[in-house]
Write a structure and sequence with these properties.
Helix content is 31%, strand content 36%. It is of the alpha+beta class. The protein has a single domain, classed as ph1033 like domains (ph1033 like fold). β3 and β4 form a beta hairpin. It starts with a strand and ends with a helix.
Length: 136
C-alpha cells in the first residue's frame, strides 16, 4: 500500500463537502510532479486530506477507489485524475505548525515543498500524522 496527501482549499472543496458527496474525482492538477504522484496512486491506497490556505491542517483520511485516468475536464492527455472517497475524520485536525514542529516529519513534502498539491508519504509519516489526529 502507498500513502499520499492531497491539498484543497476549504472554500473550494472542503472535507465536509467531500463527506457529503461520498466520492470525488480529484481533478484540476496542473503540476507535473503532482500529476506523477496521482499516477502512482492505486486502488486501496490511503490519502490524507489537507485544508490549505485556510486552516492549514490535515482533517481526515480518504481512499483511492479508482486509479488514474484521463482528466475529463481537459483534452490535454498530460493530465490525469483519480477517484477518492472519504474514510475517516480525525478527532482533531493536525496543523501545519504541529507537523513542522515534529522532528520525524520535518522532511515531508508538505514542509519542504509547500505548494505541491499531491504528495507521497512514507508509511511511518502517514501513521504519525494519523496518530496525532486521533490522539485525545
Amino acid at each position: 500500500m502507498n500513502y499520499f496527501l492531497v491539498k484543497s482549499e476549504p472554500h473550494k472543496y472542503s472535507w465536509e463537502k467531500f463527506k457529503e458527496d461520498k466520492y470525488t474525482m480529484w481533478d484540476g492538477v496542473r503540476n507535473y510532479q503532482a500529476r506523477n504522484n496521482l499516477k502512482e496512486m492505486k486502488k486501496g491506497d490511503l490519502v490524507l486530506y489537507y485544508h490549505s490556505n485556510e486552516g492549514k491542517e490535515v482533517v481526515g483520511i480518504a481512499k483511492v477507489v479508482k486509479s488514474f485516468y484521463q482528466d475529463p475536464t481537459t483534452s490535454n492527455p498530460n493530465w490525469v485524475v483519480v477517484d477518492l472517497e472519504p474514510v475517516q475524520d480525525f478527532k482533531k485536525p493536525v496543523t501545519l505548525a504541529e507537523i513542522k514542529a515534529d522532528k520525524q516529519l520535518e522532511n515531508i513534502s508538505l514542509v519542504k515543498q509547500g505548494r505541491l498539491s499531491v504528495m507521497t508519504l512514507k508509511a511511518e509519516e502517514f501513521d504519525r500524522i494519523v496518530a496525532f489526529g486521533n490522539d485525545d
